[in-house]
């Protein structure tokens, strides 16, 4: 998460670049993120900055990635908010116990690897 200080700095920087005294130099800004993620390493959270009050929050409430697996989605939500039920603990233990570090050759060869250069991929 971005700190309140960094968020204010970004706003001030855009104000200087745009030669405007208003927040973000008068530019339209869309801020996207998950406020339930880890807090900033130093400083207060972004929502403590004075510029944050200028934004209108829009909350997305319908899962898109996990909409076919509600137990997994519910587990992620519980972990996200630090309120883990016994059902989620059981699911986590089941996943951990089923992990096999010695995968088959076929599984290893079918893994997608992301690389930085075309030459590396070939």
Structure notes:
40% of the residues lie in helices and 0% in strands. It is mainly α and 122 residues long. The longest helix has 15 residues, at 4-18. The mean pLDDT is 87. It has helices at residues 4-18, 70-81, 86-98, 105-109, 118-121. It folds into 2 domains: 4-54, no CATH class; 62-101, no CATH class. It has 5 helices and no strands. The relative contact order is 0.11. The protein is extended, with a radius of gyration of 21 Å.
How is this structure best summarized?
This protein has helices at residues 4-18, 70-81, 86-98, 105-109, 118-121. It is mostly helical. The chain has 2 domains: 4-54, no CATH class; 62-101, no CATH class.
List keywords for this structure.
122 residues; 2 domains; 5 helices; extended; mainly alpha
Which SSEs are present, and which pair or pack?
Elements: H1 4-18, H2 70-81, H3 86-98, H4 105-109, H5 118-121
Instruction: State Rg.
Output: 21 Å
Number of domains: 2
Indicate the proportion of strand residues.
under 5%
Main sheet overview: none
Structural class by secondary-structure content? mainly alpha
How much helix is in the residues?
40-55%
Number of helices: 5
Mean pLDDT: 87
Oligomer: single chain
State the separation between the terminal residues, measured CA to CA: 36 Å
Succession of helices and strands: HHHHH
Low-confidence stretches: none
Number of strands: 0
Shape, please? extended
